[in-house]
Amino acid sequence: MPRDGGRRRLLRAPGDGDDSPVAGYDVVTYLDGDPLEAKIVKEQPDVVLLDIVMPKRNGFEALRGVRRDERIKQARVIVVSSKNQESDRIGACARARTSTWRNRSPPTSSSRS
């Protein structure tokens, strides 16, 4: 739902401290180690960008916590990662309400013509 002036809010986890607007969204960052669930409740973002690789609590654990919390289990979460193993895709998709996997990896030498 749009907020002040019609802007939407995006929560980036983990954040790098840069809260500059992105693509029409106001950005709020999550610092790894903070309770993500409490941050989502407080900030009420329209969408959460969640990286699987975080220093303290990995994205799978964080997403599991979000899906178990009745207050926020319907939150829109986009899982982003550089991980591309089958087990990583299965883990992310198993915790998602809907899923689409897009491989953004550069082509390998064997796939070039």
Give the helices and strands, then pairings.
Layout (H helix, E strand, L loop, with lengths): L7 E6 L11 E5 L6 H8 L3 E5 L7 H10 L8 E4 L5 H9 L19
The number of domains: 1
* Mean of all residue-level pLDDT scores: 75
CATH level-four homologous superfamily name: Response regulator
Order of helices and strands: EEHEHEH
CATH architecture: 3-Layer(aba) Sandwich
> What is the CATH C-level name?
Alpha Beta
Q: Would you tell me which CATH topology applies?
A: Rossmann fold
* Head-to-tail CA distance between termini: 46 Å
Query: Low-confidence parts, pLDDT < 50 over ≥5 residues?
Result: 105-113
Query: Based on DSSP secondary structure assignment, what is the total number of beta strands?
Result: 4
The number of helical runs is 3
The helical percent reads 10-25%
What is the alpha-carbon Rg in Å? 15 Å
Instruction: Tell me about the largest β-sheet.
Output: 4 strands, parallel
- Describe the global form: globular
* Largest sheet strand order: 2-1-3-4
Summarize the structure.
This protein is an alpha/beta fold. The chain has helices at 36-43, 59-68, 86-94; strands at 8-13, 25-29, 47-51, 77-80.
Describe this structure in words.
- It is a single chain.
- The protein has 113 residues and is of the alpha/beta class.
- Helices cover 24% and strands 18% of the residues.
- It has a single domain (4-89), classed as Rossmann fold, CATH 3.40.50.
- The protein has a 4-stranded parallel β-sheet, covered by helices on one side.
- The longest helix has 10 residues, at 59-68.
